[in-house]
């Protein structure tokens, strides 16, 4: 090994192991073609020297890396990081790593992330779109990099995708509120450019339209965050009590958690005064002092399937066909809509939980 701070090279490994540089390269890239005793000597030399392969040089030589890209719409939302974790599990089993990029709900940042991954010649990309992803997909197509979308509509039939049936999910969420007797229902969500938000609202609107005496209000938000939920909650509380909704469907769990915070802080009984249901079923939904009813998306399975579709396309199997997988959502009922195991309000010192376990929520058909 050279003196100073120079990193050990393949030549250094070869010299220590007593083999050619070509043999070291085979151990790194095609270990199955190297006899076990030779491979063990090379591995020992690598460990002894602290050798780290120069991935950039390998990419220049082969035209691709050992990495997949994951473009998350918002890494602050556990829904997306849960999907990314599942993608990583599948990738690691195939000897690949996953590079994570955050779009911060920005189409421009999303395109910049995709461009960077294209420059790095990642093997493929999973994208959770922040909006119109057409330009990003065209860029990847020009470089021969396949993409899988976590979105029901963004790529159409030309790309593989995984998604939840958000139209049905929206209907299920509002049907749950209607079955509890709520007739003044609010949908809180945004930005409206997101297919998921639009579909959830459409499902909610269709369900309300099918119910006599029910009305649906809409509150648009600029983000899908707890902070945006708190702002929406404050706006809702500013309305006269007679005009407030008694049931709220938030487009995701983070919004719902922000709304819950504002309602409880204002002394509202949840669900006695207002019931709240979210969407996604992130871990935080079940672990608060007032567990959140929500619509569950199978996040881990969506991530595994997205990774599987991507690896299948990367493998170049001529039988591969683009598939659009649509998962069925389900309502998870918790205390924020039913009052079971307890109702809650926010006392000056924090949350006060009141009511015995098993206390009933709003009565169906009460015309609230």
UniProtKB/TrEMBL annotation:
InterPro entries according to UniProt: HTH_LacI, LacI/GalR-like_sensor, Lambda_DNA-bd_dom_sf, Peripla_BP_I
Alphabetical UniProt keywords: DNA-binding, Transcription, Transcription regulation
Annotated GO MF terms: DNA-binding transcription factor activity; transcription cis-regulatory region binding
UniProt xrefs under SUPFAM superfamilies: lambda repressor-like DNA-binding domains (SSF47413), Periplasmic binding protein-like I (SSF53822)
One of the Pfam families matching this protein, by short name: Peripla_BP_3
PANTHER family noted in UniProt: HTH-TYPE TRANSCRIPTIONAL REGULATOR GALS (PTHR30146:SF109), LACI-RELATED TRANSCRIPTIONAL REPRESSOR (PTHR30146)
Name of the protein described by the UniProt record: Substrate-binding domain-containing protein
Phylogenetic lineage: Bacteria, Bacillati, Actinomycetota, Actinomycetes, Nakamurellales
